[in-house]
Amino acid sequence: MCTVLLFTSIFSIGVLAEEVTYSQSGNLAVSNPTKEQIKAKWQEIFYTTDIYSETPSVNAPYDAGALSDEYLESGETYLNYIRYIAKLPDIQLAAALNENAQYGAVLLAAIDTLTHYPSQPSDMSDEFYQQGYNATTSSNISMRGGYLDYECLISSIQGCMDDNGTNNLDALGHRRWLLNPRLLNVGFGQAEAESYCQYIVTKVFDRSGADINYDFVSWPASGNMPTNVFDNDVPWSVTLNPQKYQIPDINKVSVTIKEVSSGKTWSFDSTTGAPTYNTYAYMAVNNMGYGVANCIIFNPGASNVSSYKGVYEVTVNGIYLRDGTETSLSYKVDFFDIDEDISHTHSYQPTVTEPTCTSMGYTVYACACGDYYISDYVNAKEHSYVTSVAEPTCTEEGFTVYICSVCGNNYISDYVDAKGHSYSAVVTSPTCMVQGYTTYTCSCGDTYVADYVNATGNHTYSNSSDITCNVCGYTRVVAAKTTPMYRMYNPNSGEHFYTGSTEERDILVNAGWHYEGVAFNFPVVGAPVYRLYEEKTGEHLYTMDEAEKAKLLSEGWNYEGVAFNSAGEDEVAQYRLHNPNATCGAYHFTGSKEERDILINAGWEYQGIGWYSCLR
């Protein structure tokens, strides 16, 4: 594994109290709890050996059983302890979710395998299996071995918060569901397999809680952070509020963690390394909807940090507000041992930073516990600038860059307006089926298409028995034979997929896609509808437009052939919509005007009729 991790013992200019505004994770209406308050909250955690009010059966005849009220309360108390530290609202247990979670736990214990998509035991009823399957596909699941039975529920919650299994490092989905600000209703289930392994199901796919005002949710949380819930091999995460921030881009985001007591700094960006092992440093950005999207993940690695103690400063750069403004955020985490006496007398040691061209000098007085203050400021020096001129182009204004030869500080001034484009026009005439248009191209390479002319729509056939237009090749439907087109749904990406192949349908179902039935019927003979695939986003697109197909191919899409045929315009229209905010699942097709109008009202763009399906 190739890993790039930068260390420095020099205090960053960012520590100046006058230049940094520290943010708070979680609910902005809630103050950071004190160490004493967190310690008192920890005293509420309890264990009980009274696990079941009704013991489950993991063999036929199967019985879901039920956890005891006291055992359920122990899990609820622990999860609310975690959310208290994160400054998030309490959750509550829901009886129906507890019941459903028990079915899921028994199903996993019966097959003794940890999977969100368990197979059905041959001796299990369809009704029992469906309830269990519903639970495992909409919950956090975990398996515990080597623990006492009554420790497993709390251990599974902490394990989901750590989320440091190698399959979870690039998403931290379990943690993000538990730290979802709108999580309210939760259910717990537990059952023991014949191997003595305990399977725990936590129903958390819930967003019924009230909205709170927050900028981001971090773990470890800003403010006081007990080390008993965060070890040195656990990844850090910052989840941005989608209502305030744009989707983060790993190629733009950078993160630093600074240990205040030593000045040591860990830096992360897209070159740091992929999340493979917790031993090494890594960084990732995951925008899937696990509770809340927009998650930035980073970890110095256990080989670089033996333990966390004292104050750490975190700075996230390269993020953007919803209006497109680039911004950053900084926050502090003060790690402490919850079992130690919190009282402490500071002993400050000075670290001097000399002034530069741009920043004052100052002295940081830091205590070994992580607390510090800044004093003894010295005025900054003056710059010595050299200039570099950038001439204007068709689209970009010219400007002069002034760079200080001493410190590298720079600014831009002396702007010159862009020249503007000079376009030449190439006209593409319309055909029977394809609209005409004019392509405007500038000498700089910029191009756009405009002046569309509707397709004539007047096909020419040699005689009444012909099915192919002599001009454009359009094939009309003359036979009543039709074939069904199946619709699938990927719950992880949000994409809808269409296929006429039962084999491809069954392969996708086995891979975790949801089968949504027959979307429409298409004629055996008709105009072709092409299928294209974009590897970067995983998006599929269906189009009859040759020009659009050619354009997508030039942009790197893969052509996958003719997906199906279109019926005539006198049959059922299939409408095409586009979600401008999605990276995958951005295109959707439906023959329902009601579904079309619902999506338009939800912000989707209506792009007209994609093709026509058969009435029967």
Structure description:
- By secondary structure, the chain is α+β, with helices and mostly antiparallel strands.
- The chain is built from nine helices and 33 strands.
- Strands 8-15-14-10-11 form a five-stranded mixed sheet. A four-stranded mixed sheet has the order 3-5-6-4.
- Strand 22 and strand 23 form a beta hairpin.
- Helix 2 runs parallel beside helix 5 and helix 3 packs across helix 4.
- The two termini are 56 Å apart.
- The relative contact order is 0.08.
- The N terminus is likely disordered.
Largest sheet: 5 strands, mixed
- State the share of residues found in helices, binned by percent: 10-25%
Compute the average pLDDT: 88
Uncertain regions spanning at least 5 consecutive residues: 1-18
Provide the gyration radius in Å. Answer: 30 Å
Number of strands: 33
Question: Globular, elongated, flat, extended or rod-shaped: what is the shape?
Answer: flat
Oligomer: single chain
Widest sheet: strand ordering: 8-15-14-10-11
Secondary-structure class: alpha+beta
Short description:
With 616 residues, this protein is an alpha+beta fold.
Topology:
Blueprint: H1 35-42, E1 52-54, E2 66-67, H2 69-85, E3 92-93, H3 95-111, H4 126-136, E4 139-144, H5 152-162, H6 173-178, E5 185-192, E6 198-203, E7 216-219, E8 223-226, E9 236-240, E10 254-259, E11 265-268, E12 282-286, E13 295-299, E14 310-320, E15 326-336, E16 348-353, E17 361-367, E18 372-378, E19 385-390, E20 398-404, E21 410-416, E22 423-428, E23 436-442, E24 447-453, E25 482-489, E26 496-499, H7 502-510, E27 514-523, E28 527-534, E29 539-543, H8 546-554, E30 558-566, E31 572-578, E32 587-590, H9 593-601, E33 605-613
Helix pairs in contact: 2-5, 3-4
